[in-house]
Structures are given as structure tokens and as C-alpha cells.
Amino acid sequence: MGTLYFFFVLFFLSIELIPAADTITPTRFIRDGETLVSLRESFELGFFSPVNSTKRYLGIWYKKSPATVVWVANRNNPIIDRQGVLTIINNGNIVLLNKTKSIIWSSNTSRKVENPVAQLLDSGNLVLKDNFSEGSESYQWQSFDYPSDTLLPGMKLGWDLKTGVELYLTSWKSADDPSYGDFTYRLDIHVLPQIFTYNGSTKMARTGPWNGVFFGGVPKSPNFNFELNFVHDKNEIYYMYESFNNPVIMLTKITHSGFFQRLIWKERGSIWDVVVSAPNDLCEYYGKCSANGVCSVDKAPICECLQGFIPESQQNQTSPTRCVRSSPFDCRSGDRFIKLTGLKLPDLVDTSLNDTMSLQECESKCLKNCSCKAYANSIVSGGGRGCLMWSGDLIDIRKHVDEISGQDLYIRVRASEQVSDLNEYRRQKIIIAVLVISGILIFFSLLFCIWKKTTKKDEELKPKFKNREQAESEEKICYQVFDESSRRETKKQYKNL
Ligand SMILES: *[C@@H]1O[C@H](CO)[C@@H](O)[C@H](O)[C@H]1NC(C)=O
Ligand SMILES: *[C@@H]1O[C@H](CO)[C@@H](O)[C@H](O)[C@H]1NC(C)=O
Ligand SMILES: *[C@@H]1O[C@H](CO)[C@@H](O)[C@H](O)[C@H]1NC(C)=O
Ligand SMILES: *[C@@H]1O[C@H](CO)[C@@H](O)[C@H](O)[C@H]1NC(C)=O
Ligand SMILES: *[C@@H]1O[C@H](CO)[C@@H](O)[C@H](O)[C@H]1NC(C)=O
Ligand SMILES: *[C@@H]1O[C@H](CO)[C@@H](O)[C@H](O)[C@H]1NC(C)=O
Ligand SMILES: *[C@@H]1O[C@H](CO)[C@@H](O)[C@H](O)[C@H]1NC(C)=O
Ligand SMILES: *[C@@H]1O[C@H](CO)[C@@H](O)[C@H](O)[C@H]1NC(C)=O
């Protein structure tokens, strides 16, 4: 009777444990069909099959949106039946086993844990920790260190500088196949941080360099309590975002077709709203225009050469040609720089950086070195400082419609170069303004002179109020307008006065 009662209690205890489960231990595992749910029911972990597929994967998805899988364990190694089990084995690792107890996937940590517990957190992070170090933030392993195609708030995208390990996103192969696809989304830390979307090993899209405040050249997106953190210290360099004051559920991901997207959950309607999707226009594709060209979506054609450069072959309208110097450089005879505004700075290829120099120092250093083609501030805050110098071709420049996210670039031209420092657009504006104003002036002069001619007779009858000079200058204007030949005479008369 005593033992029966004991089993009875144990039975109820175990029932009570199941609904709240967000952890697995060496003795508590989950089978296909069972799931872990995080404490506040944000995320769920379990087995799933993508649409149109019967293969089984271990994944994490939103409890509210089970189709939105944010992490997959066995991406390239699916289980073919519904006999998979997730557990912790005695070396302290989380493992995914198939029917024949072969290891399909493992958390792969070498650190031995006394009392291992794996827990699904409300951030969407699956962590492996020691139950005795309760509350400690040090995990033996965490899924956030192995991103799939989705960057959740609090996840890092970047580099561990000590180990050289890079955290980046890799797209799914297709909508029904979570295996590693062609597109990656990663932080390049070559000279200054820039974010690239790669198609295989080819650069497909790029943000401008990190300028101390934001990644240049990225259109300003609506903020939605959204905070971007950029961390650079001696141990690591990464970018992360957080949705603070947090009613907003959001994620960013790289889709299987290569788009970087930011999605926000709409409680009403229970749907995801795509608030950012890039590339969003032709100019966002890397190197859309040739080297030393500028891409502007509001122009036709969208590509033109930088000032001081001309298309290499002018006939070829079909494909963007290389832009070459309009006249060869002669460093000794003197060069100068012209300022171009509102640009996404060129890719940091053949670029050097000194982050303490002022803009003036940067200019004189660039001027002294014949191989320096262009320079710009590296940091925009506090009026701007730091010096970026390009010595090769200038690649992937775009002109911005909203000038806020654009920066200034100074490019080297010959001192004798017949280029205006003004942007063509502004120059056109000024020409139009001048034409309009002179048109108005001529029109009123004409009116005045016609009025004067018609009233001349009446005027002669009236007493003369005007002094002679005023009258004569009026005459002069009218002669200028009406009569070229008498104009010379007027001049003469004037001289004689
Ligand atoms: C699933 O298959 C149907 C029919 O073949 C197709 O129309 C649909 O696009 C597929 N869905 C996905 C996500 O591949
Ligand atoms: C389990 O996995 C192993 C290794 O991948 C494989 O050889 C075996 O066929 C799998 N068993 C089942 C039932 O899928
Ligand atoms: C697991 O660890 C081994 C040895 O440390 C390493 O070679 C392998 O790449 C790791 N696998 C994963 C998925 O991290
Ligand atoms: C962790 O340890 C405490 C006591 O040390 C125990 O009550 C609790 O059940 C353990 N948690 C897990 C998930 O094993
Ligand atoms: C990615 O590269 C492949 C092969 O290089 C190409 O066929 C495909 O069109 C590219 N995709 C995109 C979106 O650029
Ligand atoms: C124009 O561009 C096409 C495609 O790149 C190329 O095949 C052709 O030779 C070019 N023609 C000229 C005149 O440069
Ligand atoms: C950067 O420029 C400053 C001022 O010209 C100079 O003192 C410093 O040595 C430079 N740093 C590097 C790494 O070149
Ligand atoms: C000029 O610039 C090139 C490329 O950045 C560099 O290799 C070279 O050392 C520089 N020369 C001088 C004199 O600073």
C-alpha cells in the first residue's frame, strides 16, 4: 500500500512538471511530438517539418507563430522518421538522436558539466548550463552562438577577436529546405565594419562603413523602440539590436532568396509586417555601376561617372562601362579635391584608416600621396574626424535620396579640371533660377518702356519733376532693350556728361 501511494505521488508530480517544461536534463528528454516552451511562452522548441517536406528537424519557433522557425539544429542532417529524441548525454552535451541512437546533431561543448540543464529562454536562446551555478550568465553552450538565418533581439552578429570565430547568418536553401543556402549576412571588419550580403563568395549588397553612429548609406528605417548597439573592444566586435520597452516582437533574417528583412509582429491579424527588405532598389546591388561610377535611382540611366571621370567607351549604352580619368594625372602640376555630398562611401578596398586625423590633415596627407584617390571622415559625430583614404578604384558608391544617411567624399581631380564643385543637380537649379530672374527683369523692363513710350507725350506737357540724370538712365535702359544702334549713342552721351 505504501509503495502504491509513493508511485501515485510520483505520477502526479511528473504530470505537474510536464506543462511547465522549459528544460531538459539527462533524465528528462523530449521526443518528436513533445516540445519545450519558454517560461513566458514566447518561444517553443521541438521537431518540425517545413512545408511540402516530410523530413524532421529540431527547431525553435515563436509560440504565437509556429511557422516562423528562428533556429534549426540539424540543418544539413534531417531525421527521416518521427523517432527523434533530444536529450543530454553523460559527457554533458545536448544531443539529437535518431531511432537507432545515432547522434544526428550535438551541442559539441568540451567543457564538462556536473549537473547539466538545457533551458529554452524567453529570448529564444537554448542554453546549456550547470544547475549548481544558478543565475550565472555563463553558459556552457548557447544556440545564440550558432545562428541560423535569423537574428533575434540580443543576438550578436560579428567576431570574437580572441578565437577568430565569426557569428553570421546563413539563409535556408529554399522555403522547404533549411540546409545551408547560398546567402550569408555578415559583418566585415576589414578596415571599418560594414555589413555584407554575400551570394556564395560574391558580394551582393553592402551597407556603408560604420561611422560611429550608424552604418552609412542605409535608408533610415522606422524605429519602433528599436535600439542598435555596436560593440568594439579588445575581445569582440559585434552588432546587436534590442527592442526596448518591449511590446514589439521583431526579428531580422536573410531569406532563401537573398533578401535581408526586418519583420514586426502585428498582434491584430496575427501577421508579420515586413518593415525593411533589402536590396530594395537597383542601386543597393553591390557594384551596380562600374568602378568610379555613382548610382542614383532617380536618374535615367541610373549610372554616371564621378566628376573627373568619363565612360571608357561612350558608345556602349547597354552595359555600364568602366569610368576612367578624363585626363591623365600629373601629380606634380597640382591637384585639388572636390566635395561630393550625400553619398554611400565606396567599399573599403585599398583603403587606409587613421581614426585620429582631422579632415584638414587627411586632405594634406592625401594630397601628398599620388596614389591617394579620395578621402573622407571615418567618424561623423562631433563635427567629424578620422581619415579614410582610398588608393584604388572607387567601388559601389550610391547617391542618396534622403541625404541624412549619406556622407561627404572628397575626390582628387586635376587643378585644371573643368568641373564644378556643385552637384549637377544643384547647378541645374541655379541655371534655371538665373534664367527665370533675368526673364522677369526683361519682362518688366519691356512693360516699363512700353508704358513710357505711350505716356511720353502726356509727360512732355507736364512739368518736369525728374532730374535729368534719372530721366536719362531710364532712357538708357529703354534704349538697351529696344535699340542696339542707339545704345552706343547713349553710352557716348553718358561719357560726355
Ligand atoms: C508546396 O507545394 C505546392 C504544390 O506543389 C506549391 O504550390 C507551393 O509553393 C509549395 N510551397 C513551398 C513553401 O514550397
Ligand atoms: C540514424 O543515423 C545514422 C547515421 O546518420 C544512419 O546510418 C541510420 O540509418 C539512421 N537510422 C534511422 C532509423 O534513420
Ligand atoms: C565539434 O567539435 C569538433 C572538435 O572540437 C569540431 O571539429 C567540429 O567542427 C565541431 N562541430 C560543430 C558543429 O561545432
Ligand atoms: C536544480 O537543482 C535544484 C536543487 O539543487 C533542484 O531543485 C532543481 O530541480 C534542479 N533543476 C533541474 C532542472 O534539474
Ligand atoms: C547568386 O549567384 C548565382 C550564381 O553565381 C546566380 O545564378 C544568382 O542569380 C545569384 N542570385 C542573386 C539573387 O543575385
Ligand atoms: C558593350 O558591352 C557588351 C557587353 O558587356 C560587350 O559585349 C560589347 O563588346 C561592348 N561594346 C563596346 C563597343 O564596347
Ligand atoms: C594618425 O595620424 C596622427 C596625426 O597625423 C599621427 O600622429 C599618428 O601616428 C597616425 N597613426 C597611424 C596609425 O598612422
Ligand atoms: C601612398 O599610399 C599608398 C597606398 O595607400 C601607400 O602604400 C604608400 O606607402 C603611400 N606613400 C607614402 C609616401 O605615404
UniProtKB/TrEMBL annotation:
Residues 331-414 form the Apple domain. InterPro entries: Bulb-type_lectin_dom, Bulb-type_lectin_dom_sf, Pan_app, S_locus_glycoprot_dom, SLSG/EP1. Pfam families: B_lectin (PF01453), PAN_2 (PF08276), S_locus_glycop (PF00954). PROSITE patterns: BULB_LECTIN, PAN. Keywords: Disulfide bond, Glycoprotein, Membrane, Signal, Transmembrane, Transmembrane helix. Residues 1-23 form the signal peptide. Involved in sporophytic self-incompatibility system (the inability of flowering plants to achieve self-fertilization). This is Bulb-type lectin domain-containing protein. It comes from Acer yangbiense.
